[in-house]
Design goal:
- With 239 residues, this protein is of the alpha+beta class.
- The chain folds into 2 domains: 90 residues, Ubiquitin-like (UB roll) (Roll); 133 residues.
- The protein contains 5 helices and 12 strands.
- The strands form 2 sheets. Strands 1, 5, 6, 7, 8, 9, 10, 11 and 12 form a 9-stranded antiparallel beta sheet that branches.
- It is elongated, with a radius of gyration of 24 Å.
Length: 239
């Protein structure tokens, strides 16, 4: 069956003071603003780069620095940490944003639960980048959300075009596991369509930043099911 839907390492030596002591750093002037690794420069929007440059030459402002951190996290889809280091000139500091490519650091447990009758439910996803692409890879086994348990993987890719547009494509492949009670109930009701054993989900989408933080996302949702009974076949329909 095919369904189509349309939907409108804080680890750096701080030479002046720890960056948590922002009251101390506030008396210093920002000399430079850097991002590591440096090749991430081309992945951030022009407006964000301009706001980072605007920090240079003015007194250190922890609120403005933290806002930049949050925006970097959203655009890069990475963990971002900021460090404050001694500048090359007296009374100056450097602001350094660190966004290392460390898959382990970016791996998130998206769900973890246990129910005495249903057993464990869990999901793990990691985001990383390659060649300017934002990649997402995850695995999961879920007995909590639907009637059946489904297990499988998901992959996704995203790419930014200019300052405001981002393209995304997500794919999921799940194997369905039904309990004996459900299978027996279906066997006793032949008028009910058979269960499915495989489910594929594809979701292309485009997001347009209208005015921060307002974003418009438009996309499609495709799902393809492989029935299990009375025979293993693929069926598709468009509602």
């Amino acid at each position: 069956m095919r369904v189509l839907l349309f939907t409108a390492v804080f680890c750096s030596t701080v030479l002046l003071a720890d960056s948590s002591d922002d009251n101390v750093n506030a008396k210093y002037t920002v000399e430079t603003v850097e991002i590591n690794p440096s090749n991430l420069q081309k992945r951030i929007s022009t407006s964000l780069r301009s706001d980072m440059d605007a920090l240079v030459g003015v007194k250190f402002d922890s609120s403005a620095v933290d806002k930049i951190s949050n925006r970097l996290r959203r655009e890069l889809h990475r963990n971002v940490e900021r460090h404050v280091e001694k500048g090359s000139q007296p009374e100056h500091v450097k602001v350094v944003y660190s966004a290392p490519r460390v898959i382990e650091a970016d791996a998130d447990v998206t769900k973890f639960a246990y129910q005495s009758k249903l057993g464990f439910t869990g999901g793990l996803q990691s985001n990383f980048d390659a060649g300017g692409l934002d990649l997402r890879v995850g695995i999961q086994s879920d007995s909590d959300r639907l009637l059946e348990r489904f297990a499988g993987y998901n992959i996704g890719v995203g790419r930014r075009i200019g300052d405001r547009v981002q393209l995304r494509f997500d794919f999921e492949d799940f194997h369905e596991m039904w309990n004996a009670t459900t299978i027996q109930a279906l066997a006793a009701n032949p008028e009910i369509p058979g269960i499915y054993r495989e489910r594929y989900h594809m979701a292309p989408a485009v997001s347009v930043a209208i005015l921060e933080p307002l974003t418009l996302t438009v996309g499609f949702d495709f799902q393809h099911f492989q029935t299990q009974f009375p025979a293993a076949t693929f069926e598709a329909s468009n509602p």
